[in-house]
Task: inverse folding
């Protein structure tokens, strides 16, 4: 079994990176193979909206780093979206990946578990509302099963999240893949 972890932070040792690391640790302990795609450190463009891919009936016209993500993503039974909260939504880096799902929509639809790991400085009760709505809509459209979330509010710095319960929650979600 394979899980693809897609991160969207430009901070290699940031708050959401810690959640990704802990999820991966749990998933590997559960016996799962993991593939990590750190979108902020890959060279790929946004979806051009050209439609030449036909949502998967033809290859994407762009030849970039998405070529190394998409085969693993199609073969995975679980998808993990890991993002810091940027203006109440996914970071641009991970949103660009999500938009590029279009080129493989038919191959990606159905049969996958999906997880959301997100971090935010704010801790208001509505802080993650727009992000979770987007995530739920994506999961519904892709016919993926929401298998769990870690919404780490009040974690504006690495030291904040290290002192919180959230890394352990991410580890347990990874471990739940048994």
Result:
């Amino acid at each position: 079994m394979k899980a693809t972890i897609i991160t969207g932070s430009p901070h290699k040792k940031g708050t959401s990176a810690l959640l990704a690391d802990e999820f991966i640790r749990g998933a590997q302990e559960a016996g799962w193979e993991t593939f990590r795609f750190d979108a902020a450190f890959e060279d790929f463009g946004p979806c051009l909206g050209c439609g030449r891919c036909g949502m998967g009936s033809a290859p994407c016209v762009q030849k970039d780093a998405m070529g190394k993500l998409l085969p693993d993503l199609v073969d995975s039974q679980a998808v993990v979206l890991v993002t810091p909260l940027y203006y109440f939504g996914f970071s641009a880096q991970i949103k660009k990946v999500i938009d590029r799902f279009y080129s493989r929509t038919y191959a990606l639809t159905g049969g996958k578990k999906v997880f959301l790991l997100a971090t935010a400085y704010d801790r208001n009760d509505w802080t993650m509302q727009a992000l979770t709505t987007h995530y739920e809509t994506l999961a519904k459209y892709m016919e993926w099963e929401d298998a769990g979330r870690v919404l780490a509010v009040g974690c504006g710095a690495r030291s904040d999240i290290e002192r919180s319960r959230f890394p352990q929650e991410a580890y347990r979600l990874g471990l739940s893949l048994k």
Notes: The longest strand covers residues 145-152. The chain has one domain: 2-175. The domain at 2-175 is CATH 3.40.50.360 (Rossmann fold).
